[in-house]
Each structure stands twice: as structure tokens, then as C-alpha cells.
Design goal:
single chain; alpha/beta; Rossmann fold; Transcription Regulator spoIIAA; globular
């Protein structure tokens, strides 16, 4: 399997203008660049930060490197088409994204409450993007300039590319391609597909005729199918039949392999939605070239002194790899970014660290992260010849680490050591989550990590402790976490450092019972963990766990005889109870927990002794809350 080099094409004629200091957001900036028009306009729900961690900037700079003039419309007023015409009519296409997050996840909590701030907006202003932003933006683009091709992309479009369960409306919605009335949808990492589409449009090809680009989704009348495909159950069927919905979700995951994946098609009334196989992952050289494009790594000057929290969190971090082969069922990353690890070269990473050191405002000598979707999958992957053998596993790590997986941490250790020796670098922190089941395979890595790259706290995600929930999550046995915890504490003591693990747990995940959450609460108390912020399972589109939540059927198991049923905590009452177990130490939760423990026949856990989970008394107003953890303990267990 091979593809033309991403940067090996003949550039579009507009290359003569050269790279822009920042991609323009106004006609004034276009005039200063000498542009009479934009070839491509990217519309996004995020504020424009010219940093490779922001999708609009990454795709914009990749297209610019192909010679195209790219403009940005960031967080437009979606109430009318006027805001979508500020840069004029694009010559080739609109690219539309909700931003780095699904707009519904961005705007609402797991309990359905409207969020009061938005980290991707200036000064965290809420409500600068609409619900279902891709749909709203695409429709306004069509109104502003009919006839201009519209290509949807980004996480929201990617994970809604077929019929999907929508938690916020509690129903199965059809492919977002149809509701947005876009001409095409690009899913996953979009560089290859968007470059191919842009060049073909520039060569005067009609977008309706582009039907062979990997990583794209398009719709055609059912009568035009005429090709070999894997047919998913139709929208009308999956909207009514939970078993068929679960089956369709599993089929999408089974065909997500960029080497062996086949084209999928799903009928929506009189139209077929085609999903071509995933794009070929970028090579190390292509990834290096992409991340070394001329990003300013800063917000657009138009934002002046406004704070952009999402940028502040990552401005001193460096991405070293893409992809994840963990296969956690609650995460749709494998269905978006893919399971194949794509790693940058050491030299490219070191050059970017120097760029951060020399050019990014506020740098104090500390790199906040060298990572990606995970911290420690750099240069790892399958040992088998991918061209010859197809693997049916959804996870390379569950139920155990695959014997065919290359898990050496030596390249990562070497990178860490070289990075921290660079002039002006005081500390290299690891902010991405560590897969402890992988880390345990390299005691040298754990010692290196703990001794040099933990800034007091290290994020880790056991998610649960009981076999039932862990199996539905596709997460490893908690004993592995306890082993890692022991090593972490041992090496911290050897380094004479006071450091703590920050564990992540999920409440109300499909396959979790009240008894499971009680056992987790007891485990937390035994290990002296007090969670300040509890995470409740949020059924995001396309994940396997979301299919469990909606259907009550486990798509990880065979579908014969109606499939394997899953117990699902539904409704606010059940979900709040599970969350309360995670925060058993909070007096606000004690009345709810007492009631539940009595119902469960566990009144023995109510009392004022060390063996009890919650006390029998309740602090009143104005009384000093004796249950609050000490300042030291609270700091140690902060999430």
C-alpha cells in the first residue's frame, strides 16, 4: 500500500505569494498579502490559533504548502450567511469543522447542563458556536455562496459519518453529511484526502465526480451504487433495531484498517452514503514536514490580549506521534485517528522544542508535554507484515498485550534524554496519559519517567477496578495499575521526590452495576485516593461503549441469538449515584449514598469508624466541615 508523497505534488500557481505570516481572517489581511481571493476558506468553531494542535491551522498550513491561498473564518455568527462571506467567494471550496471538539460535547456536560465557558474561545466566552456546528456552518456556507463545494471534516463530522446515536436528542440520527448538505466529508486525519481533493478541484474536476479518494464520504442515489462494498444495515433499520445498530457499529470498526479495510455503504432512504477505506497514514518524513510548517504557534493577532485557555494549556507542548492501538471501548480515537502509530523523527521533535524555546511567549524553560493521544506508544506497533495479514483484534492491549506488538520504550527514553539536554530546557514534563500496562514492560522507562519527567503529578487512567466494567471498557486488570503504582512510589522515593498519581475513573459506564461502583469506592478509600472531579460516562458518537449504551447489546461479542446483553446505568438518578460513589468523601453525596447502601443491604458501611464508607452524621450549615481532606491530601489527589 503506497500513496504519492504528501508534499511531492506540483504546487498550485498561487505558490508565488509564499506563506502568510498568519492565515488571513479579514479582507484587509488579504489585501496586505496581495490576494484578490481565497482558493479555500476554512470555517471553524474554534478561535484561530496558528498551532499544529488546532485542526484549522494544521489543515490550513498543509494546503498553503500546496500553493493554495487559505483563509480562516473562526467562530462566525451562524444566525445569517453574512458572516460567511467576509472573505469573499472561495475559488475551490469551503472546509467546515466544528473545531477540536464535537460541538455538543463542547457545550454540554454529561448531565445535559450547558457549560458556562469554552476553552477554545477568547476569554472562555460561551455560546460562540452553535449546537451541531457542522450542520449550521455548512448550511450558511451554502446560503452565502451557492455552487461552491463544501467539504466537512474534523472530529464532529468524522464521528458522525454514518447513522449514529445522538445522546443529546436520545435518538439515532442519520449521517451528518446529509443533514449538513455537504458535498463531501473527510474523516480521520485529513491531510492526504484534503490535498487530493483540493488539487483535483483546482484541475477543474467536479466534486460530484471525485469518488475514489480514501478517507472520504459522499452520497449518491441508490441506483448508482454499482461497486463492490460492504453494506451496513440501512438507516431506517438501525434507527429502529438496537441489535442492527450495534452490528453496524462493529462493522465500521472492523473495516477501519487502512490496509485491509473495505468500502462501506449505508442506505438513507433513496440515497446511499459511501465510506471509502481510511487514508494511508503519514510516513515519518511527511509527519515531520507537516509539523515543521511555518506555524506562529500563537493566537491570531486579532485576539489581542484576550486569553485562550486551550492554547495556554498546549503552547509549550510538542506532539511526537499520532494514533492509538489501545482500543478502549469508550474512546472513538481508533475510529478517527486510527490504531497505527505514526511517529515523528527525533531530529524534527528536537527542532520543534527549540522553536518553542526561542519563539513562544511565556516560555520559562519547561516543556509541558512530549506526547500525543498517549504518552508512551512512540515508535511502537505490530511486528507482522501488515500487507499480508489482517488482524481482527480491536485492541492490541486487551485482554493482554499482543505477542506480535513491538513495545520497546528505548526510542522514547533516548528522545527524553536528548530533549532535556538541550540548551535552555530546564524540565521536560509528560502531560499525556501513560499506558501503564505498556510501561510495565520497561522498568527502565518507568524509572526514567518518574526520575525526570513528572512535575509532582502523573495522569493515569485505570478507569475502574472491577472485572465487569473493565471488560466492557477493554481496560486491563487493576492489578497492573497497582504494580505500576508500586513502581512509581519506589522510584519517586529513590529520587527523593514527593510525587503523586492522578487516577482517572469513569462512573456509569455500560456494564457497571451499583455494586461495582461500591467496590470502586472501597478501593479508593483503601488506597487513600480522593477524587476532586468525577468523570461520568458520556456517550459520544460512534464509540463501541455508546453502542452498548444505546442498544443494551455488547458489540464486542458475537451477535447470534440476539447478542450479549449489557446492563446500562440510565437516567440522571442512576448516573448521579455512580458519580457519588467516586466522591464518597464529599458530604454533599452522603445522603444519597446512605440511602443506596441501605437499599443494597450494606448498612455496615455507614458509621463513624475507619472501616465505614460514609458517616452516620451530616454536617449542618455553619458547622466546620470535619470531613474535608487536609490541604496536603487534597493537593495529592487533585485531578
Amino acid at each position: 500500500m503506497s500513496e504519492p508523497s504528501l508534499y511531492g505534488r506540483r504546487k498550485y500557481w498561487a505558490k508565488r505569494f509564499g506563506p502568510a505570516p498568519v492565515l488571513p481572517m479579514s479582507r484587509k489581511e488579504m489585501d496586505e498579502l496581495g490576494w484578490d481571493s481565497c482558493d479555500i476558506i476554512v470555517v471553524s468553531g474554534d478561535a484561530y490559533v496558528d498551532h499544529p494542535s488546532f485542526g484549522m491551522a494544521l489543515i490550513g498550513r498543509v494546503l498553503e504548502a500546496q500553493g493554495f491561498r487559505v483563509g480562516i473564518i473562526a467562530q462566525p455568527d451562524w444566525q445569517s450567511p453574512a458572516a460567511f462571506s467576509v472573505l469573499g467567494r472561495p475559488n475551490l471550496m469551503f472546509g467546515v469543522t466544528s473545531g477540536n471538539m464535537d460541538s455538543m460535547v463542547n457545550r454540554y456536560t454529561a448531565d445535559g447542563r450547558r457549560r458556562s465557558d469554552d476553552a477554545y474561545s477568547p476569554d472562555q466566552q460561551p455560546d460562540l458556536r452553535p449546537d451541531r456546528a457542522v450542520i449550521a456552518y455548512c448550511n450558511r456556507c451554502r446560503q452565502a455562496y451557492s455552487g461552491v463545494p463544501i467539504v466537512a471534516g474534523g472530529i464532529e463530522a468524522s464521528l458522525r459519518r454514518v447513522a449514529h446515536y445522538d445522546y443529546w436528542s436520545d435518538k439515532v440520527r442519520r449521517s451528518i453529511l446529509l443533514d449538513a448538505k455537504a458535498d463531501m466529508l473527510i474523516y480521520g486525519n485529513a491531510e492526504r484526502a484534503v490535498v487530493e481533493v483540493a488539487h483535483r478541484l483546482a484541475a477543474a474536476e467536479e466534486i460530484a465526480d471525485i469518488k475514489d479518494v480514501r478517507g472520504t464520504v459522499f452520497a449518491r442515489p441508490t441506483s448508482e451504487t454499482g461497486r463492490e462494498v460492504v453494506r451496513l444495515p440501512a438507516y431506517d433499520i438501525v434507527a429502529q433495531d438496537p441489535l442492527q445498530f450495534a452490528r453496524a457499529t462493529r462493522l465500521v470498526f472492523d473495516e477501519a484498517d487502512p490496509v485491509h479495510g473495505r468500502a462501506l455503504v449505508q442506505q438513507h432512504a433513496k440515497r446511499d452514503v459511501f465510506l471509502l477505506p481510511p487514508a494511508v497514514p503519514l510516513s515519518t518524513k511527511e509527519l515531520d514536514q507537516t509539523y515543521e510548517l511555518p506555524f506562529t504557534r500563537c493566537p491570531h493577532p486579532a485576539y489581542k490580549s484576550a486569553r485562550l485557555k486551550a492554547w495556554e494549556m498546549i503552547r509549550h507542548s510538542v506532539t511526537i506521534m499520532r494514533g492509538c492501538f489501545g482500543g478502549c471501548s469508550f474512546c472513538a480515537l481508533a475510529c478517527h485517528a486510527g490504531p497505527i502509530i505514526q511517529s515523528r523523527s527525533e531530529e524534527s521533535i528536537l527542532r520543534e522544542i527549540k522553536q518553542v524555546r526561542d519563539n513562544v511567549p511565556g516560555f520559562t524553560g519547561i516543556i509541558s508535554d512530549l506526547g500525543g493521544p498517549t504518552a508512551n506508544m512512540y515508535r511502537q506497533g505490530c511486528l507482522r507484515d501488515a500487507q499480508q495479514k489482517k488482524c481482527q483484534r480491536l485492541s492490541c492491549l486487551y485482554p493482554s498485550v499482543c505477542r506480535q506488538l513491538q513495545t520497546s520504550h528505548l526510542p522514547l527514553i533516548k528522545l527524553y534524554r536528548r530533549a532535556r539536554k538541550l540548551r535552555g530546557i530546564k524540565k521536560i514534563l509528560i502531560g499525556s496519559g501513560v499506558r501503564y500496562d505498556l510501561a510495565l514492560r520497561s522498568s527502565e522507562y518507568v524509572k526514567e519517567l518518574v526520575g525526570h519527567h513528572v512535575g509532582g503529578y502523573l495522569k493515569i487512567a485505570p478507569e475502574h477496578v472491577c472485572p465487569g466494567p473493565l471488560a466492557h471498557m477493554q481496560k486491563p486488570d487493576v492489578k497492573l495499575f497497582e504494580r505500576f503504582k508500586g513502581l512509581f512510589e519506589k522510584h519517586s522515593a529513590e529520587a527523593s521526590k514527593e510525587q503523586y498519581l492522578v487516577p482517572y475513573f469513569i462512573a456509569a459506564h455500560p456494564g457497571t452495576t451499583d455494586e461495582d461502583m461500591l467496590e470502586l469506592a472501597q478501593w479508593l478509600k483503601k488506597h487513600d485516593f480522593r477524587i476532586d472531579q468525577a468523570q461520568t460516562f458520556l456517550p459520544t458518537p460512534m464509540s463501541l461503549a455508546t453502542a452498548m449504551y444505546h442498544s443494551g447489546i455488547n458489540p464486542l461479542k458475537p451477535f447470534k441469538d440476539g447478542g450479549v446483553k449489557v446492563k446500562v446505568p440510565r437516567g440522571l438518578r442512576a448516573r448521579r449515584l455512580h458519580k457519588a460513589f467516586l466522591r464518597y468523601h464529599d458530604p454533599v453525596n452522603w445522603p444519597l449514598l446512605r440511602k443506596a447502601l441501605k437499599r443494597m443491604g450494606r448498612e455496615d458501611l455507614i458509621g463513624n469508624g475507619k472501616r465505614h464508607l460514609v458517616p452516620s452524621w451530616q454536617p449542618g450549615r455553619g458547622r466546620k466541615n470535619e470531613s474535608r481532606p487536609s490541604a496536603k491530601r487534597k493537593k495529592r489527589t487533585r485531578r
